[in-house]
Write a structure and sequence with these properties.
The protein is of the alpha+beta class and 442 residues long. The chain contains 14 helices and 15 strands. Helix 1 packs parallel to helix 3, helix 5 packs across helix 7 and helix 7 packs parallel to helix 9. It is an enzyme of class 2 (transferase). One of its GO terms (molecular function) is aspartate kinase activity.
Amino acid sequence: YNNTVDLIQLEYSNLARSSVSSRHILQELQIEIHEDCDWLRRFLFTSQSLDGTSSKSENAIVATGEKISSKILVAVLLDQGISAEFISIEEIESRIDSDDENQFIRSFSAAIADRIKECGSRIPVVTGFFGHNDGAHSLEVGFAEFLSATLAVGLNASELQVWKTTDGIFTADPAKIRSARLIENISRMEAAELAHHGHPVVSTFTLEQVSKRDIPIRLKNVNDPLGDGTIIQPDLTYLNQNNDYGPWWVKEAPSTPSIDRLHWRRPTTIVINESILMISLSSFGAVPSSAFLADVFDTLHAYGIPLDFVTTNHNHIGLAFEDRFAEGEIERLADELSRLGKIVVQFRMAILTLVGDQMRSSSGVSGHFFSMLVQGGVHVEMIGSASDISMSCVIHEGDTTKALRLIHQTTFRKLDVKKVSVNIDVILFTIRTALIMPIQKI
């Protein structure tokens, strides 16, 4: 491991020399790099002598890289005459004594916010990796994203910025639809639905955290920092804003006083999940429907299958989920399910999901969406809607590009609202988070 650490130190030292011109700042930075790499050597020696390389050891190694990278960034800022301060998450995390996830989140959010406030006018550069507290390890979210979300809440930030390598969320995948346009804003509910369907704009954890303070999230492009990006608005803010994509005729929900009054609504989202396996199973009729469904779900649970799509009636069930089976495993699953009823398995399918606030109370949306698919020659295998803000269908994977282009061409247009009164559906394409930064209220 000594040779590996030597290479790491050399790489960081070369980066420091190429990034910092001030001799004094560079000298201090080189000392920091040397000390951190020496610590890493001692740590690896101790780990090798005791228990080998455990998960905590691996976390400590990664955290060392985060420290050095953050210190280099601080040095670069100082070299440019910008006051900055390095903050190690380890120092804050070590002061929190809680294995309970919720308590850890609350305590950490308050602690990191207090530490940031101590920086005053200096720009804080914070490491984003946790490697020491069990409360953090139980979280199913990236540590950098955890840090940004809890920090935004702790500071009561006016905005949380998520920096990516694209401009934001588009009306369709720009690689497939040349006319795809950038969406100005979407609601938190829509973003959460995107994450549920396997297209996370940001994690559900981040959405849940910022919703506590109604903090908007702005998606930005590192290659175009002056671009507006896409904003994920708190739901009430989103519903009260107008948009320029044309009319979205919506009847109010039955529980509201004016059921027939029409509202302007902004566009919704469509996402595609490919590499889907679809199973149709019809009961032999010898058992009650509840027992039949229970047996089906028990079998799927035994195989650890997370379902993406389910539709049922009294003696039939349709299922769709990602095809991640090892060779021969799907045959064994099909064999077990065939004991419960007549089974049909279809490979290379895709799930098309339309997402939008108050979808069920939107007049004519589903009819327009599915009729456009049928008229375009896209065969719909199954249709389902269990959510108030989404509806889905299963199609053949070979039709996904056609379906995407068809919906985009027929429903996403900038229309003259005085002349047209149709439903407008907007297609969004999701991307993964690269860098997240909260902005504190002034």
